[in-house]
Amino acid sequence: MTTGRTSWLLRRPEQTRTAFLELFFDLVFVVALFLLSHELLKHLTWIGALQTLVLLLAVLVVWFFVVLFTDTFDVRHPLIQLMVMSIMFCALVMAAAVPEAFGRRGLVFAGAYVTVRVGATAAGALLLRGHEAVRNALRLLFWFSMTAAPWIVGAFLHGWARAALWMAALVVEYIAIGLGFPTPGLGRGGTRRIEVVVSEEHMAERYRLFFIIALGEPILVIGLTFSSGDFGPASGAATLVAFATTGLLWRIYIYRAGAMLSLAIAAARNPRRVAVLTIYAHVTMVAGIVSIAVGDDLVIQDPLVQTNPTRIVIVLGGPILFLAGRAAFEYAVFQRLPRPRVIGALTLIAITPAMRLVPALATAAAAALVLAGVAIADAVRTPTITLRAPSPPA
After folding, report:
1. Is the pTM of this model over 0.85?
2. In the chain, how many domains are there?
3. How far apart are CA 144 and CA 142, in angstroms?
């Protein structure tokens, strides 16, 4: 193995714990997710949903990149700390630009995004000179450089044109993740474990902690919305339902697959596939959480209002997305689709038409009951599958 002159900057496999700097970095995404849900709440239209999705996918790509970066480099070293802080500032600029990202601050958002993707990757490639991991950094740099142009050009366009160009760039990036960033002269990444993960335990812990950060978004929305209301019985009941829903999301997430991701990565014959499925699953779950936060705001403000189609999609769509992503996550760890999550998602879809006849609070309560059913099914299954080892897809 070629180690290069900068091997002293690299994370070692035995360094499994998440550093305080990484937790500090994650705080930026509390701001980003809050602003994203707030923008969706203000623009409850198809174009508003598309724009929110584009921005969310971009924000999550930055987080995934930093996870890979800090899994490769040792954040105890001042140089790496400086780089992480620089990326953190760019992410903060992206978050601040979210409200006007499809308006007058499009270039600010795109510029910060491209700076992280291209600039930080190029710096990482320089630090990895002479080390075998530099091939992976060069693959990333090749693809990020290709998608930089649509981001910058899109910033000078408006409306659907900007959204379409940015979404096209993101689709290319997410497809490249799934394919292992195939690059001329370098081939496809992920064929060796070092190209996917240095420390399985560190990577798994990062995902778990980020999910907790994401759950902070509905908690923040619940507290702020309830505090601005009249503290009446209906809004109090809506707040209780919203809080219970958030607690159920946490319980369903950590059950088995959430606790065994590191073992699944270590046991996988194809660690890239496990990593890719995990990324896609968390993107879907976080999108669901953003939708749930918006639904919480709507229901707590007007718990007894008749539910219209838009509110139904928001209130039930969030849990559906979460259960779909959680099912994909379990498949990544155990190579099976869990019946409780699939049945729960199908149940939510099945009851959607009937929700036109009930107030918003009843719709939210129905979603919470379905999630409770999934959590209860997990508890019932626990004694029979506790000893089952991870069996990730080949």
Report:
1. yes
2. 2
3. 6
Residue 349: CB atoms within 10 Å: 12
Choose the final residue of a domain: 195, 211, 232.
195
Burial (CB count <10 Å: 0-12, 13-18, 19+), residue 388: exposed
User: Could you tell me if residue 71 is inside a domain?
Assistant: yes
Please check whether residues 154 and 240 belong to one and the same domain: no
Looking at the structure, tell me whether residues 53 and 155 fall in a common domain.
Answer: yes
Could you identify the residue written with the tokens 């159920």? 248
Q: What is the pLDDT along the chain (394 residues), one digit of tens a residue?
A: 445 556 677 777 767 778 889 999 999 999 999 999 999 999 888 899 999 999 999 999 999 999 888 888 888 889 999 999 999 999 999 999 999 999 999 999 999 999 999 999 999 888 888 777 788 889 999 999 999 999 999 999 988 999 999 999 999 999 998 888 888 887 776 555 555 666 778 888 889 889 999 999 999 999 999 998 888 899 999 999 999 999 999 999 987 766 677 777 777 777 778 888 889 999 999 999 999 999 999 999 999 988 888 889 999 999 999 999 999 988 888 777 888 999 999 999 999 999 988 999 999 999 999 999 999 998 887 655 554 555 566 5
Number of Cβ within a 10 Å radius of residue 139: 24
* Residue from 230, 235, 244, 243 nearest 359 by CA: 235
Tell whether 367 and 257 lie within a shared domain.
yes
Query: Same domain, yes or no, for 187 and 61?
Result: yes
295: containing domain: 200-385
Q: Is residue 205 part of a domain?
A: yes
Q: Where are the beta strands (DSSP E) in 203-344?
A: none
Closest to 61 (Cα-Cα) out of 102, 120, 10, 18: 120
Instruction: Tell me: do 101 and 19 sit in the same domain.
Output: yes
Q: Does residue 174 sit in the same domain as residue 212?
A: no
Q: Residues 150, 234: one domain?
A: no
Asked whether 206 and 72 are in contact (CB, 8 A), the reply is no
Residue 30 counted as domain residue: yes
Based on its alpha-carbon atoms, the radius of gyration of the chain, rounded to whole angstroms, reads 21
Question: Looking at the domain assignment, is residue 391 inside a domain?
Answer: no
